[in-house]
Specification:
The chain has about 170 residues and is α+β, with helices and mostly antiparallel strands. It contains four helices and four strands, in the order βααβαββα.
């Protein structure tokens, strides 16, 4: 069974689409990476601040300025091993696939809806040109109309789901 499954339609890549074990012909790979401060690393920094504040409370106020460097070094040294074994950044990555939309009007509509949401220009099927704004495009093979490339057929997701069940 194929490891490539379309996130929009549920279709799986066929053996004909996977050439020499490579990525399926015409398919789209979407990878989302998120990088953020590791909560454990952040907690270590909070603990270090708390320890320094606690140590400084035991020092008379008139001596704190003189002692802060020595106490900071002591706190840094006590946490050095833990801090060195903890990454400052954490990452989350997700990869999804979209089936080749070139031969499927409904899938192309959903893919363009996704592209528009991300601020990208719409793509067109290989056998058509991008329509002018406000132009109605007829697709005789499906009796479907699409008004403007910017307005996506609301029933496209249902059409994609129906086509994937037929396959």
């Amino acid at each position: 069974m194929s490891e490539y499954k379309c996130a929009l339609s549920g279709l799986r890549a066929t053996e004909e689409e996977i050439i020499d074990g490579e990525f399926p012909d015409g398919w789209i790979e979407v990878t989302i990476n998120r990088k953020f401060i590791n909560p454990k690393w952040e907690a270590i920094q909070y603990v270090k601040q708390g320890l320094l504040a606690q140590y400084l409370q035991g020092v008379p106020e008139d001596q704190r300025e003189d002692q802060i460097m020595a106490l900071s070094i002591q706190v840094e040294a006590s946490m050095a091993m833990l801090e060195s074994q903890t990454d400052k950044w954490a990452e989350d990555s997700s990869t999804l696939y979209i089936a080749n939309p070139d031969d499927n009007i409904a899938l192309m509509a959903e893919y363009n809806k996704f592209r528009k949401f991300l601020g990208l220009k719409p793509e067109v099927r290989l056998d058509e040109e991008l329509p002018e704004d406000n132009e109605i495009v007829e697709y005789p093979q499906t009796n479907q109309q699409v008004v403007e490339t910017e307005k996506i057929d609301e029933n496209a997701a249902e059409t994609v789901a129906e086509k994937s069940q037929d396959s």
